[in-house]
Amino acid sequence: MNTFRSLTFLSILLIGCNQSIDQNSSDKCTCTSVVSDDTTGAVIYKTVRGALLGTRFTSLDELKTVVQIEYKNEAISSDSTGSENHSVSVRHCSNGREVISILEKGTSQGDILKAKSEGAIWGRFALLFGCPYAVMHRKDMEKIYALSRLRPEWFGAGDLAFFEIARSMVKNINTPDLAFRNVRDSTEKGYLNSFNHITAQAFITSCFSEDLADFIADAHEIYRHPELITGNFTEAQIADLEEGPVDNYVDLVNNEWGQELGKQLTEKYGITSETTWTPILLANYLNDLQGYYSWAFQIGFNPYKPEDESVIIFTKKLNAVMNSGMSFGI
Prior knowledge:
mainly alpha; disordered N terminus
């Protein structure tokens, strides 16, 4: 299974504008999008609102006309005049609303996995003193891992994870003439990637917390793509539209929109970590996500129904993970 599909740790960081993203609300942040709200041009990404499609961009420079990427420096040492980038902020304004993703140096997913794989008490102590937050929230991190991976040995045949839910949403698109005029949108890095990040981040925010999502995001991004913080990309990385900075900065933005959706749906349905999910609740939640995608990408969907097999299977998994005493070791 490749890195994209496993998504052990899902991205996103700090919220820039703490507003509901109900597209019909008149209560909006004060921000101005230079390009993405301009629908007069012929460039196809201009028709997208809120969430982004990485496949609509042909270069990093083009992405920078839609999102603002800023690297922040700090002195290397107290007696040095040099500096190095130690954080990056990615700001996206669309339809009058703004999100900001901030990625900083710190404990990485690799540090956490190393402490576990070593199994030695000193490795665990090193993690405890280096990042007590990870130790405090280990159980919830294990649950997120379980929801992010296929585990039929735990949850039975037909087990689903966030990626499979996103793929079912792609299959639910019922306006192919509108959705796939850009051929790249039908690839794994098109709607599937955007749906995967936003859907997963919405669920993580609703079922756990925004703070934990922030931490997990930092740990994952620092481990997988530390150059996102520095901006020191090779020419090959910049040219790689599938795995390079265009793809990853789009993921950061989409994870932010996913958190905003998660907060809104948490309030709408009164979701907590102790919620018992029903097929009706899950179908409504998924249909609300599709409603957002319909607005953002201007496409149509077939709705989920409580009796759908995928809804029933994922409802059982959510309850097994959230409301049982099972241990889900990372």
